[in-house]
Each structure stands twice: as C-alpha cells, then as structure tokens.
Amino acid sequence: MAQTRRPVVEGWFDDGDRGGDGGDGGDGGDGFRLLGTRCYTCGSVFFPPVDGPCRNPACGADGLAEVALSRRGRIWSYTDCRYRPPAPYVSDPDVPWEPRPLIAVELEAERMVVLGQAAPGVTVADLAVGAEVEVVPGVLYEDDADDADDADDADDADDADDADDADDADDADGEDAATVWTTWNWRPTGVTA
C-alpha cells in the first residue's frame, strides 16, 4: 500500500526536501526545521509563520521573510498529557491512550518558546528544565487506506459524476494510498530512539 506524507499544517516546518541550505547552523542533523518569519525592520521572529505586518507592537512594518528556526533549544517547561485530547486532535478511540509529554522549548537565538510533543519513547523521567532538546520529524496520525476510502466514498455520494475522483484513480491502478500526517517532536539531544 502506498503512503502519502502530508504535514499537519502546511508551511510550519521543512522536512529538508524544499531545496534550502538545510539551515542547520552547525547543529548537525537531517535538515528538518521549524519555519518562522522574521521582520526585515525590527528583526522580531514569529512562530508559527505569519503573513502581513510585523506583530511587534513597537514596529508594525510590512516585510517579513521566512526563516528556519534553531534546531536545538532548552526545556523551559514540560508536562505529562495523561488524557486523550478532545477534537480537533486526531487519535484512534479504539487504541488505549498512552501519556505523552508536552515540552515548551526556549529557542535562545529567536527569543521565543515553542510547544510540541516529545518524541515517541521519551517520558517525563527523561526530561529536566534547562536540558537541551532538538526538533525531529514526527507523525501525528496515520489514515489507513480504509479511512481514506470511507472519506472518498462520502465524497462519491456528494460528487458521483466527478471523473477525477482519487478513489477511482486508486481503483484503476489497484493500489490504495494511506496518508501519514507529519508534525514535529522534541527529543533530548544524544537520544536516538
């Protein structure tokens, strides 16, 4: 079965395939980076990226450039998420919920804190305020082909005459596609799990 990788939110991170310099700033790593915007006038950096004028109330200038954020930062705070988050968070209700730490990471160069989930296998016992972490690619959710087919079937009912329907294309080549929804995670440096 073919898999299609899609970011949960378009434009918030770069998996290294966009052809940039990788922006790794000497940190090493695979080129995965969070993306923000920087004001040309005052130098303020924002995440998530913004369009329009600078959000710095002392500036307000037009002209923001996309920038890759630091790959590494220090834990500012963390907590253990012991309950299944409500919608729009996507999780399989048939699978038992496993607690997952949420980490607030201070990016010193950007003078900001960015929140994200810990990488799989990382527990609160592995974390400490001030410890160094790095951003790594993560998977939020995977749609299996049946989920995608169910969604396509609903589309088919609404749009029976659509000759370009993705479900028809899958049927034509005999292969269904699953979607892997990608995001970012924070992982303590030196951990390869």
UniProtKB/TrEMBL annotation:
Residue ranges annotated for the ChsH2 rubredoxin-like zinc ribbon domain, each copy included: 33-64
Region Disordered: start-end pairs: 1-28, 140-193
Superkingdom to which the source organism belongs: Bacteria
Biased composition (Acidic residues): 141-176
Any Pfam family: zf-ChsH2
InterPro entries: ChsH2_Znr (IPR022002), NA-bd_OB-fold (IPR012340)
Biased composition (Polar residues): 180-193
Name of the molecule in the record: Zinc ribbon domain-containing protein
Upper classification of the organism: Bacteria, Bacillati, Actinomycetota, Actinomycetes, Kitasatosporales
